[in-house]
Task: inverse folding
């Protein structure tokens, strides 16, 4: 059953998908930093307030994924910021996250060599988001 | 010069007033690599070459003008390049993930290396100017590598 995008239930299912992924388990080995995703508000898309997704990832597993404020996400070691529509494009495979970062459509803050070293893990993380069936606020 | 990043060791300049996201990312990556490794710094200090990188699936590129201890990053492809690498975004990222082996040579027999070699054979990774610049390519690869 589809869940609301960027809701607590979505975060729970996303975490389950990450922990089910054998690809992520291998590719994320050695990762020990938190990742924050800032979803910027787009009131005209029925997404009136920014949200932050905080991902506590450790050694190929998701210890916790929670949804809170943008400020929560901004405190993480790595922060990726984009408007709601861009994240929707990533989650629906319309936009490849790597290309999005190279084009500046997704803004990355954090140690670049580390994130590049874990390119495969971040690609699989994106794949995991696409496996969660979602109801999008602008389609309600 | 449009902008100089002020860091502990100033190594990267941007030729354009507004560097593209790709230019900032590559410049930032090289700067972090060089400042984090004495071996990469040695390579960086010895390298004089103009290297173009064109990402075929986003139609964006940069020219990296290495000037023995300083790098100027230009948006887009500029003239007089010694080497030009053309590949998809994923392959460009994989170039940064090539492991460096004996004698400073990139390793092409592990998973990442095989993937890069396959793209080269398939023509999805093109390197113009390779003849006569193989040593330059290896040096650039070592500076890029995050492994």
Result:
């Amino acid at each position: 059953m589809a869940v609301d995008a960027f809701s607590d239930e979505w975060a729970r299912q996303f975490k389950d998908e990450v922990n089910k992924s054998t690809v992520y388990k291998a590719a994320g080995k050695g990762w020990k930093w938190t990742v924050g995703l800032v979803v910027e508000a787009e009131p005209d898309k029925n997404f009136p307030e920014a949200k932050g997704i905080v991902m506590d990832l450790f050694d190929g597993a998701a210890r916790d994924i929670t949804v809170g404020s943008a400020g929560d996400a901004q405190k993480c070691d790595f922060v990726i910021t984009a408007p709601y529509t861009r994240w929707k494009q990533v989650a629906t495979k319309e936009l490849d996250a790597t290309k999005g970062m190279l084009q500046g459509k997704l803004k990355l803050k954090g140690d670049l060599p580390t994130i590049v070293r874990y390119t495969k893990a971040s690609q699989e993380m994106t794949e995991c988001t696409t496996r969660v069936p979602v109801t999008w606020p602008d389609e309600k | 010069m449009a902008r100089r990043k002020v860091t502990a060791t100033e190594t990267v300049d941007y030729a354009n007033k507004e560097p593209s996201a790709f230019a900032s990312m590559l410049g930032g990556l090289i700067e972090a690599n060089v400042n984090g490794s004495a071996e990469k710094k040695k390579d960086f200090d010895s390298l004089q070459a103009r290297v173009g990188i064109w990402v075929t699936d986003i139609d964006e590129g940069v020219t990296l003008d290495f000037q023995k201890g300083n790098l100027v990053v230009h948006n887009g492809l500029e003239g007089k390049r010694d080497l030009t690498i053309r590949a998809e975004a994923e392959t460009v990222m994989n170039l940064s993930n090539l492991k460096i082996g004996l004698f400073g040579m990139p390793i092409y027999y592990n998973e990442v290396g095989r993937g890069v070699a396959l793209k080269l054979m398939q023509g999805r990774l093109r390197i113009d100017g390779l003849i006569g610049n193989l040593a330059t390519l290896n040096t650039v690869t070592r500076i890029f590598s995050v492994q």
